Amino acid sequence: MEIVALLGSPRAAGNSSFIAERFLKAARRKGARTTVFALNKLRYRGCQACDACKTRMDHCVLKDDLSPVLDAVQRADALLLASPIYYGDLTAQMKGFIDRTFCYFTPDFRTNGHQSRLSSGKKLVMVLTQGAQPEYFKDVFGRYSSFMSYHGFTESHLIRACNLVEPAAVRKDAKVLKLADKIAALVVGPRRK
To answer: Which helix (H) or strand (E) is 35 found in, with range?
Structure first.
């Protein structure tokens, strides 16, 4: 199994990145291959609404640091999106990636039953962290997992940690860390010999 992880935090050692790494370690123990992209280290632009990916090519026309990320996600069996919640939503770094996934839609996606260029059956894991209490921003996962289902992500999982005021606070949250291990085991499945 190939897992691609996108880290959306501007903090390299922040809470969402720490949980993502915990998940990836557990997945590697089960035999998964993993690739990690720290979005904040990349230089890329948002979708330009040029429609080139619908009219003259089957991929995004922009050539920047996000190009290999989009290619890797296309090949992956599972995608992990890790982001803190800033101002009630994913970080700008993660939202920029999400916007660029428009290139995955087929030219006739509005009328075709098969809307995406991605193969179906992919798995999505979202790691969301926030300083606020759990009753806030609980709509974020549903919104983005629903959106990603249009691209063939038929299984989605959430690892969510709330009330994290300090950048390393999640390291003491055994419940969330165990959840990361458990979801990794679900996503990867039994270790193959």
So the answer is: strand 33-38
Dist. CA 39–CA 44, nearest whole Å:
9
30: domain CATH number?
Answer: 3.40.50.360
- Distance separating alpha carbons of residues 97 and 113, to the nearest angstrom: 24
Quote the CA–CA distance of 184 and 181 in Å, as a whole number.
5
Asked whether residue 174 is assigned to any structural domain, the reply reads yes
Q: Are 157 and 187 in contact (CB under 8 A)?
A: yes
Mean pLDDT of 104-110: 92
Q: What is the 3-state secondary structure (H, E, C) of 50-114?
A: CCHHHHCCCCCCCCCCCHHHHHHHHHCCEEEEEEECECCECCHHHHHHHHHHHHHECCCCCCCCC
Token readout for 65 is 């640091």
pLDDT in tens, 129-188: 999 999 999 999 999 999 999 999 999 999 999 999 888 899 999 999 999 999 999 999
Domain limits for position 161: 2-188
CA 117/CA 104 separation, integer angstroms:
5
Q: pTM for the full model?
A: 0.95
Q: Is residue 193 part of a domain?
A: no
Quick one: pLDDT at residue 190? 80
Q: What does the alpha-carbon distance between residue 112 and residue 90 come to, in Å, rounded to a whole number?
A: 29
Question: What is the domain count for the chain?
Answer: 1
